[in-house]
Design goal:
The structure holds 2 protein chains of 2 kinds. By secondary structure, chain A is an all-alpha fold. Chain A has 2 helices and no strands. Helix content of chain A is 83%, strand content 0%. The termini of chain B are far apart. The chains are: A mainly alpha, B mainly alpha.
Chain lengths: 58, 255
């Protein structure tokens, strides 16, 4: 551990705002990139389910 | 000598791709998660601070992997473009279209984290420096490919146009790479080279190696997720796709 306390870790030696905002933005983008294809797949399968049901009724 | 090309044709088969990628995906996802968690924790909490930059240098552990991936992804687009144009492989276009948005996101991450790192280090969020400008051009190239792919409604024409733009735009990659050597720049040189040992101590560059590998595994996993959905959509009439969709629906409907 290169920090004496958790407070020091958060402060990052006066660079806390820079380091944490950079990491925050990066993690948000990574999460978004996983969420988008997962949601798109779910949406597509739901559309297909609706289409199949319609075709079965007719 | 007769060479067997069956593996190449198999690779182009959407059904085969779907099966193989389904088996590969969980491994890539787990590897990405583990490498990123280890690398980021190590880099943020355990790596020693830089004697000049202090703790702001810890941004390197996301900035450099994002920038490396942004460039590798563009090279991949160009290779996919060549494969698509020369061998008319449909899967190459799927790969190109699905990878472009991920590459654009990575370029944006590299630019934003670079700006945030630049403020405490250079005293400015942005300078019109060769490295930064060529990375900005990379972002616009990605936007161009994405826009072109969506603007042309005929799939084959769109694939050709995007492939040509990807191949032409690849000249920007060596410009990014050598920009720090060709022009006077604020930006520091490469951290990793294949021929020399890194200038930093191992406890500083090992976490970087972790996050870099993690970003590549992440890219692989997200790319496969996107490509699998795109294949399902494009091959919607094939019987194996109908089976796959109804299987997924059945799994979802089951309690």
């Amino acid at each position: 551990m290169s920090f004496a306390s958790f407070g020091d870790f958060l402060a990052m030696g006066h660079h806390g705002l820079y380091v944490w905002s950079a990491y925050g933005i990066c993690v948000a983008v990574l999460v978004l990139n996983v969420a988008m294809p997962l949601l798109a797949r779910r949406r597509y399968l739901q559309e297909e389910a609706r289409r199949l049901r319609r075709e079965n009724i007719q | 000598m007769k060479m067997s090309w069956t593996w190449f044709h198999k690779l182009g088969s959407p059904k085969w791709f779907y099966a193989i990628s389904g088996r590969l995906l969980p491994w890539l996802a787990v590897a990405a998660l583990v490498l990123l968690l280890v690398g980021i924790t190590w880099g943020l909490a355990f790596a020693p601070q830089d004697y000049q930059q202090g703790n702001s240098f810890r941004i390197i552990y996301i900035h450099v992997p994002a920038a490396m991936l942004a460039q590798s992804c563009y090279v991949m687009l160009a290779v996919a473009g060549v494969v698509g144009l020369v061998w008319k492989m449909k899967l190459a276009d799927v790969a190109l279209q699905c990878a472009a948005p991920i590459g654009a996101w990575m370029t944006a991450v590299a630019l934003v984290t670079g700006a945030i790192w630049g403020k405490p280090t250079w005293g400015s969020w942005w300078v019109w420096d060769a490295r930064l400008t060529s990375m900005l051009i990379l972002l616009f190239l990605y936007f161009g490919i994405i826009a072109l792919g969506q603007a042309i409604s005929n799939r084959d024409s769109a694939a050709k146009a995007c492939a040509v733009l990807a191949i032409v735009g690849v000249v920007n990659i060596p410009i990014i790479k050598y920009s720090v050597e060709w022009w006077n720049t604020l930006h520091q040189g490469a951290t990793f080279t294949l021929t020399e040992k890194p200038a930093m101590p191992a406890e500083m560059w090992l976490p970087l190696l972790c996050t870099a590998l993690g970003f590549y595994c992440f890219f692989g996993a997200v790319l496969l997720m996107r490509m699998r959905l795109e294949v399902l959509k494009r091959e919607a009439r094939a019987s194996w796709v109908k089976d796959e969709v109804s299987n997924s629906l059945g799994r979802r409907a089951a309690p």
